[in-house]
Amino acid sequence: MANKTDNTIRRHQVVIIGGGFAGFTAASRLRGAPVDVTLIDRRNFHLFQPLLYQVATGGLSPANIAAPLRGLLGKQANCQVLMEEVTDIDVQNRSVCVFGGELKYDTLVVAAGSRHSYFGHPEWETLAPGLKTIEDATEIRRRVLSAFEAAELSQDASERRRLLNFVIVGAGPTGVELAGALAEIARHSLKEDFRHIDPSDARILLIEAGDRVLSSYPADLSEKGQRALEKLGVTVRTNASVEEITDAMVRLRTEAGKETIPTKTVLWAAGVETSPLAKKLAVATGLELDRAGKIAVDPDLCLAGYPEILVLGDMANCLDKEGKPLPGVAPVAISQGKYAAKLINNRLRNRPTPHFHFNHRGSLATIGKSSAVAELGRFHFSGLFAWLLWLLIHLMNIVTFRNRLLVLLQWGWSYFTHDRSARLITGEKSTSEIAELASPNTP
Amino acid sequence: MANKTDNTIRRHQVVIIGGGFAGFTAASRLRGAPVDVTLIDRRNFHLFQPLLYQVATGGLSPANIAAPLRGLLGKQANCQVLMEEVTDIDVQNRSVCVFGGELKYDTLVVAAGSRHSYFGHPEWETLAPGLKTIEDATEIRRRVLSAFEAAELSQDASERRRLLNFVIVGAGPTGVELAGALAEIARHSLKEDFRHIDPSDARILLIEAGDRVLSSYPADLSEKGQRALEKLGVTVRTNASVEEITDAMVRLRTEAGKETIPTKTVLWAAGVETSPLAKKLAVATGLELDRAGKIAVDPDLCLAGYPEILVLGDMANCLDKEGKPLPGVAPVAISQGKYAAKLINNRLRNRPTPHFHFNHRGSLATIGKSSAVAELGRFHFSGLFAWLLWLLIHLMNIVTFRNRLLVLLQWGWSYFTHDRSARLITGEKSTSEIAELASPNTP
User: Fold this and answer.
1) Given CB 3.0 to 4.6 Å as the disulfide criterion, which of A53, A219, A343, B22 pairs with B313?
2) Which of chain B's residues have a Cβ under 8 Å away from the Cβ of A194?
3) Helical (H) or strand (E) element with A39
4) Is A426–B63 a contact, with Cβ atoms under 8 angstroms apart?
5) Strands across the sheet with A86-90, in order?
C-alpha cells in the first residue's frame, strides 16, 4: 500500500481512520500543516447522520445528506483519501492493516464510530433494522412503505391491523425523531394515497426501557417531548423492555406483566456499540473498554502509553470536568476533531496543548413538524421556536452549500404541502414481498 | 382482490397495467370520466426514464426523477393504485391475474414497457448492466465509481489501465448520453479527486454495430453527434459488434477482424425487448409479435378482435402514416396514453374516435455539457442552442413541480462547478469488492 511519496524528505505521516464528523474535521483542519494525511473510510462519502431519519421517512434523498469525501478533500494537497477497510492496527510497528496492504503512521487518529447494538440478541438485526447507514435508511423506508402497501392489499382485518402497527424500540433522540416522522407520514403525507385503508389508523408505538423519553435531557423537557409525541398520535410506553422479536410480533416486559404486540415493522433505536476496532485497540494496548465498548482516553484524547494514537468521537470514553462521559453526538465529535488537528500541529512545533475541553452549548431534538425540545444551558424550551432553532442549526452544519440548498428547498416544500416525495420503495422483488406480507398464509 | 365497490351501480372498469408515460397519462386523463380506474404497477413510483442516465452518472438522486404514483393520483377519486405484479391476462374472462388474486376489466390498457435485451446472451446481464430501473442506475453508478477507486488502489499498471477502460455497447440516445456523461465525469468532476491516477486517463469506448451513432436521427446529426463525442474524448467504434463479454474484457468483431478490450466495466445500451406480458397476450389472442417482441395494434391501438384491449408505449407495434413503426420514446407513449383515455371516453358516449396519429415534433439527444443534437422537422441543429432546448423540454416534462425545482437547482449547480455530488457508492461490502478489483490475483 503506497503512502504518498515524492522526492522531498519524508513528512510526518498522519493516518485517520473514519470520515465521520471527528475524522473528517481532523483531516480538513490539518490543511496546510507540514504533514501527509491519509483518511481511510469504508464509504466514499461523509454522512450527515443527524438527518438520516429523514431519509428513512422519505423526506430527503441519500445524496442530500452525504458528500463525497474526495470532493470535500480533493483540493487539500496534503491529504489523500483511501476507500478501504481497516482490518487491524499494529501499535508496536505503528502501522494500519487494510485489505490491500499496510500503512505506516507517525500519528494515528482512530474515529471509526459505532453501530447499533442488540444487547446480546444479534438475531434481532434482520428483524429490527437500526439507523446508522444510508442502506439502513433506505431499508427502513422500504419496510415502512411496504407495510402500508401490504395493508392496502390485505383482505384480512387482523392482518391489516398487524401491518399498521409500527414499533420503535428506544426513545433517545433517534427513536423520538423517527416516531414523530412516522406519525406525520401516517396522518398527513399518505392521507389521500389509499382506497382500502386509512393510513391514520396506523399505530406508532415508542418503547423505552427507562422511565422517560429523551433521558439525556432534563426531566421537564422529557415530559414536554412525550406530550408532543402523544399529540402527534404516538403511543409512548416507558419502563417497557423488549423480550422477544419475531417477524410477526414484539413481546414486551412491562411493570404490569408481559404484552405481545402484533407487528411486521420493528425499528431499532435502542443503543449503540463501538466499532470492533476499539476492542482490537484495547487488546493491543491493554487499555479498558467501558460497557458500550468505548476506549478510555487521556485528557488529551490520546491512549495511555501511546501518545501517538488519538481516539475520537463515538469510540472514545472521554470524561467532562465533572467526570461524566461525553455523549456520542456530532458536536462532541467535531470538537474532538478540531482538537486532534491542533494537538498534532502543536507537537510538530514542540508547543504544549491544553487538555481537551468540550464546551457544551446545548441539545436539541425535533418531534414531528413545528415542534422540538431544546436545552441551552439553563434555558429549556420547546415548541415552534425550538424547532426553528433545530432547523437552522442542522441546516448550517450540512457540509456542502449545494446540499444545504437542496435540503432547505425540500423542507420548505414539505412544510407547506406535507409532501414527502422521496417515498420510493427500491430494491428488487418489492411486489412479491408485499404480496407475501399481505397474505402470509398463502405461498 | 377487491375492485373498488360502493353501493352505487357498478361502473365501467378500466384496468391499466404499467405506470410509465403511457399508463400514467391514460390514468390521469380519465379523471372525471364515469369509470373506475385501477392502475397496476410493480413499483410505487412513476419514473422519468429520459434522465435515468444522470442518476447513473451521479448528477441527480433517484427521487429527483421519480414521483410516487399514489401521490400523483391520490386526489383522483375514480382511480386506485395497486402495487402488484401482473402474472397473466385472461382475455376470454376479461380478467387480470396478480399475486393476490384477479381483477375483472371492461377495458384493459396494457403499457408494461420494455427491458433491455441481450440478443440471446442472457448471461451478459450481470456483466453488462442496462439502464431501465432505479436499481440499474445505482448499480451502474456503483460500478463506475468503484472502478476509479480500485484503480487508485491498484499497484499494477496494466490492471489500472483495464480498470480505467469503460465500454458502452450501443450508440442510440441512451448510449450516447451515458458516454458523454462518463467523459464529463472523468475529465471534470473527478479532476482533483485522486492522488495515484489521473481520472482523465480513463478511456470511454462507445461500441455500435451499425454504421453510425444515433441511427434514428438524420445522417448529418449522427455525424455532428459523433464529432461532439470525440471532442469530449469518447472513442466511437461503429460497425463493431460484441462477441463475448467476461468480467475482464470485451471481445469485438470489427471489419478489421477481432479485437479484445481489457475492461471491468461494460454498460449495455444496445437494445430492448418488451415485457413478457406481450408474449402472453400474443399467445392468448393469436396475434403476432415483431422481432423486438412488440404486439401489432390496430390504428386505434386496440388488438384485432379484442377492441376492449389497448396496448400502448414500448409494447405496441404501432405504424405511422408511412407504415414505419413508431419509436419507443416518451412522446409516443404520452400521446398514446392521451388517445387511450379519449377513446374510452368516446366509446362510453357512443362517439367515434379518429385513428391514432402521432404528431412527430422532433428528436433531441444530449452529448455531455452544452452540446446536443436536435431534429425539428426540416430543421437540424446541434450545439449550445440544441442543448438549451433539450434542457427546457426535459425540465418541463418532469412530473412534479418539486422535482422540476430540484433538478433545475442541481443542473445549475453542476453547470458552474462541474460537481456531481450524488456520486455515492451504495450497497454493502463496497470496500471488499473494490479491494478485489484492485488486486484480482490475491484473495
Assistant:
1) B22
2) 70
3) strand A35-41
4) no
5) A86-90, A95-98, A101-104
Nearest residue to A117 via CA among A106, A100, A130:
A130
How does DSSP classify residue A427? Answer: S
Question: Can you tell me the distance from the alpha carbon of A11 to that of A78, in angstroms, rounded to the nearest whole number?
Answer: 10
Asked if residues A431 and B83 have their Cβ atoms less than 8 Å apart, the reply is yes
Tens digit of pLDDT for each residue in B358-397?
998 889 999 988 899 999 988 998 999 999 999 999 998 8
- CATH 3.50.50.60 domain position(s) in chain A: 12-42+84-116+273-348
d(CA B287, CA B273): 17
**Ramachandran assignment for A262, one of left (phi > 0), alpha (psi -120 to 50 degrees), beta (any other):** beta
Cβ pair A431, B99 in contact under 8 A:
yes
**Beta-strand runs (E) in A150-194:** 165-169
In the stretch 377-416 of chain B, residues with CB closer than 8 A to chain A read 400, 402-403, 405-406, 409-410, 413
Amino acid in position B420: R
Contact status, residue B50 vs residue B93, Cβ threshold 8 Å: no
Does residue A330 sit at the B interface (CB-CB below 8 Å)?
no
Task: Residue count of chain A, please give it.
Answer: 443
ipTM of the complex: 0.90
- pTM given for the model: 0.93
Query: How far apart, in whole angstroms, are the C-alpha atoms of residue A267 and residue A242?
Result: 12
Residue of chain A minimizing CA distance to B60: A63
Task: Cite the residue boundaries of each domain of chain A with CATH code 3.50.50.100.
Answer: 122-270+363-438
Quick count: other Cβ atoms within 10 Å of Cβ A75?
Answer: 10
Q: Name which of B184, B246, B236 is nearest B215 in CA terms.
A: B236
Amino acid residing at B157 = A
Given CB atoms, is B135 within the 8 Å cutoff of chain A?
yes
pLDDT in tens, B416-426: 887 787 889 98
Q: Is the pLDDT higher at A347 or at B5?
A: A347
The pairs formed by B195-198 with CB atoms below 8 angstroms and a separation of 24 or more are B195/A4, B195/A80, B195/B152, B196/A2, B196/B152, B196/B153, B197/B148, B197/B151, B197/B152, B197/B160, B197/B164
Q: Which residues of A are catalytic?
A: 177
Residue in this structure with the C-alpha cell 360502493, named with its chain if needed:
B6
Q: What is the pLDDT of residues A380-408, one digit of tens each?
A: 989 999 999 999 999 888 888 888 888 88
Residue B151 in contact with residue B160, Cβ under 8 Å?
Answer: yes
**CATH topology (fold) of B122-270+363-438:** FAD/NAD(P)-binding domain (3.50.50)
How long a stretch of residues is chain B?
443
* CA–CA separation, A209 and A236 (whole Å): 11
Ramachandran bin of B185, using left for φ above 0, alpha for ψ from -120 to 50, beta for the remaining angles = alpha
CATH of region A12-42+84-116+273-348: 3.50.50.60
For residue B84, the chain A residues in CB contact (below 8 A) are: 153, 431, 434-435
Fold category of B12-42+84-116+272-348 in CATH: FAD/NAD(P)-binding domain (3.50.50)
